[in-house]
Design goal:
about 35% helix; toxin-antitoxin system; globular; YaeB-like fold; about 25% strand; single chain; 4 strands; alpha+beta; about 100 residues; four-stranded antiparallel sheet; Death on curing protein, Doc toxin; 3 helices
């Protein structure tokens, strides 16, 4: 199963092929964007339609990347599920879940 951590690692490794320093700063930027916005406005991401999950998955974009997440209201947390390049098809990537 893909995970947010694995997705960030993959993104960082790809960017590091050309610019290792930028890979680190870019991953920091994505992480900060998620933390700053979703910690205050957890429902600001668009609902993802067409996925067969019991819970409503939302998406938060940052540049050419999307972070998919759940809002766990009872626990008062946001759970980041996956981080992928926005051009990739989320349905294909998580088909085995």
């Amino acid at each position: 199963m893909p995970s947010a951590r694995a997705g960030l690692l993959e993104i960082g490794q790809y960017i590091a092929l050309d610019n290792p320093v930028r890979a680190i700063t870019f991953i920091d930027e994505i992480t900060q964007s998620i933390e700053k916005t979703l910690s205050i406005f957890p429902f600001s991401g668009k609902l993802v339609e067409g996925l067969e999950f019991d819970e409503q998955i939302r998406v938060w974009p940052y540049e050419n990347y999307n972070s998919y997440y759940l809002v766990k209201e009872v626990q008062q947390i946001v759970e980041i599920l996956f981080v992928f390049n926005a051009s990739r098809n989320i349905k294909n990537l998580i088909a085995d879940l």
